[in-house]
Amino acid sequence: MRYPLVQTGMGWVAGPRLTAATCEAGGLGILASATMTLDQLAAAIAEVRSRTQAPFGVNLRTDVADVQERIELMIETGARVASFAQAPNPALVARCKEAGLFVMPTVGARRHAEKVAEWGVDAVIAQGAEGGGHTGAVPTTLLLPQVVDAVGDRVLVLGAGGFFSGAGLVAALAYGAAGIAMGTRFLLSAESRVPDPVKALYLGTAITGTVVTTKVDGAPQRVVRTDLVDHLESQSWWRALPRAVRSAYRFRQETGATMTSLLREGRAMKEGNELSWAQVVMAANAPVMTKAALVEGRTDVGVLPTGQVVGVLETLPSVADIVATIMAEADDVLRRLGAREPQQGAGETGREETGRD
Predict the structure, then answer these.
(1) What is the total count of domains within the chain?
(2) Are 28 and 156 found together in one domain?
(3) Which of 14, 29, 65, 357 has the fewest CB atoms inside 10 Å of its own CB, making it the most exposed?
(4) Cβ neighbours of residue 329 under 8 Å, at least 6 residues apart?
């Protein structure tokens, strides 16, 4: 990597083209695998490799039945970074480390960062409440310095949630982070696979136009507030159950998962994320409803995961332009900050110091 910028593994968005473009621009692209079958992941990794020779990552869910097979595939194909949407278990971390993979889970709380650091991960992405998709309740400005203080002496810490500019990168570095990870900024790029009319809807969203809801899949998720989301918010769990069952059936068809594997994944999800069975039943809603909007363009029946930064983004630049602009802005901010440093007082010492500078 030439620059401390990470493109996160957004389901249905972070495909081979976006991932490779980020790597070619000097950042780290992460391929989203949660919405792929194992065969589709193999094909996607091969396509990324055909587009770039730079290192890239794969985002994994720890509660899928074939997570071990996915890790072995990464090892065989030379993917370098294992990015986890939830905290991996010690055995998964150990296998990745044994094979030389760089392990980087996303966390939303200080205690989660401390736990995975004890298991030997290489880095954590500390995502604050401003972030899109599944997110926590602590703002980035509080979470990031907490995580740096807790584990920054053992692992690299990257900030996520609310970042889109060079000034934000400098702020994260000032907190002690090693860089930043961004989702929404890369979603709204030329290389993103999201349909143009949907991108236009994102660009028209105000900074107050998002909401964190549990009514999509049972877990807190930040999405664009739409009529559909308002309708979901007004429903009871029992009223939402039929939609969840339909989503589970559709998800099973698309992934080829067996009922046994779905039940096994549900149990792992419940135990690993401290969810109720009601939340587990709703879990299939997220990938199905996200695909409806971000792949099929059906925003009337789909949801639009996003960070709050959507309200300040107005253009659809190329990934290369995004990276170049952020780095140029960061350099400019640092120069301006340096120019404001208090000058040493007059006298021999001051002249000596100035001469050495």
Answers:
(1) 2
(2) yes
(3) 357
(4) 165, 166, 167, 169
Q: What is the pLDDT of residues 18-37, one digit of tens each?
A: 999 999 999 999 999 998 99
- CB of 31 closer than 8 Å to CB of 58: yes
Range of the domain at 228: 202-308
Using only C-alpha atoms, the chain has a radius of gyration, in whole angstroms, of: 21
Q: Is 126 exposed, middle or buried (0-12, 13-18, 19+ CB in 10 A)?
A: buried
Percentage above 70 pLDDT, the chain:
82
Q: What is the pLDDT of residues 95-126, one digit of tens each?
A: 999 999 999 999 999 999 999 999 999 999 99
Q: Looking at the domain assignment, is residue 339 inside a domain?
A: no
How far is Cα 213 from Cα 304, in angstroms, rounded to an integer?
Answer: 12
Instruction: Find the CATH number of the domain harbouring 73.
Output: 3.20.20.70
The verdict on residue 337 lying in a domain is no
Q: Is 178 in the same domain as 269?
A: no
Based on the fold, state whether residues 19 and 161 are members of the same structural domain.
yes
Kindly list the distances between the CA atom of residue 143 and the CA atoms of 139, 310, 341, in Å, as whole numbers in the listed order.
6, 21, 28
pLDDT higher than 50, residue 187: yes
Co-location of 109 and 10 in the same domain: yes
What does pTM read for this prediction?
Answer: 0.86
Examine the domain organization and report whether 162 and 234 are in the same domain.
Answer: no
List helix spans (H) across 16-139: 16-24, 38-51, 67-77, 90-98, 110-118
62 inside domain: yes
